[in-house]
Specification:
With 194 residues, this protein is α/β, with parallel strands linked by helices. It has two domains: 130 residues, TIM Barrel (Alpha-Beta Barrel), CATH 3.20.20; 48 residues. It contains five helices and ten strands. The strands form three sheets. Strands 2-3-5-6-7 form a five-stranded mixed beta sheet, with no helix packed on it. It has a three-stranded antiparallel beta sheet with strand order 8-10-9, with no helix packed on it. It has a two-stranded antiparallel sheet with strand order 1-4.
Length: 194
Amino acid sequence: MIIKRFVDEDFVNYRKPSMFIITPTCSFKCDKENGCLMCQNSRLVHEPTHDVETDVLIMRYLENPITKAIVFGGLEPFDTPHDLVEFIQSLRWNYHCDDDIVIYTGYTEEELEDTMVYKIISLFNNIIVKFGRFRLDQMPHYDEVLVTKVDADGEAEVFFPNLDTCIEFKARCVSSCEDMGYNTSFWTYRRVAD
């Protein structure tokens, strides 16, 4: 299996601790549709590729007591369909492992639904395909947002929209405390309308 690299324990890209496998190629659909270079993963293209035996990756995953899922992403998993199918078939048939497999793709479901790779992986349980090409004119969609508010003056590098003024969300304070002299509160915002 040709990959860029993998992360044994990833806690960011799925709700379960996962092995994250970075696939080797991408057709950069997002950049082409937006008319500019904007892919957050474009630097991965310049990294070397590695030919790793599928069984080696699977055994490494299965021997790790922490991980409970496998995530494919980084570049475009569906641009290497043979490797993707071989991995899934081997995990399911040879190792009898039914853990979640999450595939992040820039393709739409309509673009993939008639492809052989999509038809094959659709035969297996616990395959989660996260469709979504980045578009500059598309607002992000969140169903639930967890927010930590710190009552302090200061500079920040990243700003998040003020959900308190957003009628699509209902806010609930989960807890609050004083930490190192700052009042801190933890909030859950749930989407109530689309």
